[in-house]
């Protein structure tokens, strides 16, 4: 992300003139006029209190184009900074769950990070147990994995499930699952709102919240829904809702 920001910043500071020159050369090659055409400035009546014309109106077309490019680059940089600031903060909270950090960090450092993460997710993680798990998991995972230093949190979670270590390291598994399921963008939320507009139209204005949520989940996860066997679902529903009790 830092590299992307640096490249865009370089385009904004240095490369705008080069872009204009390259565009002019390309235009000439394909038979299009390569320079900026000068337009006659429209005369606008001004009040007597106006001392001078607006400086922006006196910009040349080439300078005006460069200013517009800089505005676009500034907007992109601002959006990148805003959108990924929260993601960077979350990533820094969970960075100790990767193989590289586990192998390089000391036990005290891992305990401190586990304690800080437990404060954020109090309902999911037990602070004292999580710290104890980190102290032993650091060495056990390194002994069980060949490329431990290069392993990702997903690799570590697969290791826990492969060797049935969930009971020994429950907080570690929960922390990794939280990290892997956190949304990294707002695209999922935007898709959800798009689905809601389709589901709850003006003909279904009286639909309740629970039904709306269920239909939204079915619509969003339509691939999973299409693969379901409705006979099994109906049988399971009927068995749970049956009012008669079999007497043997």
Automatic annotation (TrEMBL):
Domain HAT C-terminal dimerisation stretches: 147-223
Pfam families per the UniProt record, alphabetical: Dimer_Tnp_hAT
InterPro entries: HATC_C_dom, IFN-induced_PKR_regulator, RNaseH-like_sf
Protein name in the entry: Zinc finger MYM-type protein 1-like
Organism: Hydra vulgaris (Hydra)
